[in-house]
Design brief:
DUF4276 family protein; 5-stranded parallel beta sheet; 2 domains; Rossmann fold; alpha/beta; 5 strands; single chain
């Protein structure tokens, strides 16, 4: 059985990985998630000199496949972001285009519940600063904001956000890549 460990750039990615929906996805794919999901507390901590301790901790906990989740942010391209982190054997680097919050924009079902109105977004990975965009939308549609990125992530999880929904969006290639990589590990 594949035992996957996850190193997440920040709290939002960590919340997604720890969610029941994501854990159910892993179970359905025959993947066991190592209990200790690591929050690296920022992209700067995903540099090679910092990652090794995270990797070793997951390997010591039984992981035989490691996923690193990070945002593209203002970096030029996914390839350079992966090179900065350094690719390794049995390690997959998932780079969400712009920010992981673009995946929220891709999940029309969860966003519709969040905004209490029908929602679709044509190009979620093209939206500059998707968190700020969602925050403004919430104020307009509901009269209330979402506070922090952590609050937004928790709200989205409670409204059924899933990687599968984000990956099914025709213009959310990074979520699709993540799901495809997970599916490729299916026994």
């Amino acid at each position: 059985m594949v035992k996957a460990g996850f190193i997440c750039e920040g709290e939002t990615e960590t919340i997604i990985v720890r969610s029941d929906a994501f854990q159910n996805l892993l179970n359905n794919l025959g993947i066991e998630c190592i209990d200790s999901v690591i929050d690296a507390s920022g992209a700067g901590n995903l540099l090679p000199q910092n990652i090794e301790d995270f990797r070793q901790s997951l390997i010591d906990s039984g992981a035989n496949q490691i996923f690193i989740l990070t945002d593209l942010d203002d970096n030029v391209c996914i390839t350079l972001t992966k090179k900065r982190i350094t690719e390794r054997l049995n390690q997959t680097i998932i780079v969400s285009v712009k920010e992981v919050e673009s995946w929220f924009l891709a999940d029309s079902t969860a966003m519709s519940k969040l905004l209490k109105d029908s929602f679709s977004f044509e190009n979620p990975e093209s939206q500059e600063n998707p968190f700020d965009y969602i925050k403004k939308l919430m104020l307009i549609k509901t009269g209330a904001g979402c506070g922090s990125k952590v609050n937004l992530a928790n709200k989205m999880i409670r409204r059924g956000f899933s990687i599968e929904n984000a990956a099914s969006h025709p213009n959310c290639s990074s979520a699709n890549y993540f799901l495809t990589k997970l599916q490729s590990l299916r026994p």
